[in-house]
Amino acid sequence: MELHSGGLFKKDILCIDDGRCLGRADELLLEYKAAYIQDVTQPGNYQPGAAQVQALIVRGRPRLFGLLGREPDLLIDWSDVLVIGEDAILIRGQGREVQSSGGLLGSHSLRGQFAGKLPWS
């Protein structure tokens, strides 16, 4: 089965411990590893790097239409993902709560730790 990242966002995330539906993934946390080849004869020649999924982020529900902020976000480690099916993603555990910052224009608190690893930063 071939799966694109957009397909992950359309699937419900189900916890097998208690059968709860945790929601749908809103963001992927990726770790990008560049694999540059230094060739003296052809400067600038490189191999593209690879990205590895670290976690899924499920955004918290808004309180009073977002006026009172949001509930904490759920961070689900990729190692907790058991099965990715056609309709759902089965996970072990419940994920861990991460406090979200800002409203619609705010940035996620986890983005700061990965900002230095991005190739354009």
What does this structure look like?
With 121 residues, the chain is mostly beta strands. It has a single domain, classed as Roll (SH3 type barrels). 7% of the residues lie in helices and 37% in strands. It is built from 2 helices and 8 strands; from the N terminus they run αββββββββα. It has helices spanning 5-8, 111-114; strands at residues 12-15, 21-24, 27-35, 47-58, 73-77, 81-84, 88-91, 96-98. It has a 4-stranded mixed sheet with strand order 2-1-7-6, with no helix packed on it. Strand 1 (12-15) and strand 2 (21-24) form a beta hairpin. The two termini are 34 Å apart. Residues 117-121 have low confidence and may be disordered.
**How large, in whole angstroms, is the Cα Rg?**
18 Å
Terminal-residue CA separation: 34 Å
Globular, elongated, flat, extended or rod-shaped: what is the shape? Answer: globular
* Helix/strand class: mainly beta
What is the average per-residue confidence, as pLDDT, rounded to a whole number? Answer: 75
Strand order of the largest sheet: 2-1-7-6
Main beta-sheet annotation: 4 strands, mixed
Number of helices: 2
Name the CATH superfamily classification: PRC-barrel domain
Strand content: 35-45%
Annotated CATH topology? SH3 type barrels
Number of domains: 1
Which percent range fits the helix content? under 10%
Number of E strands: 8
CATH class: Mainly Beta
CATH architecture designation? Roll
Helix-strand sequence: HEEEEEEEEH
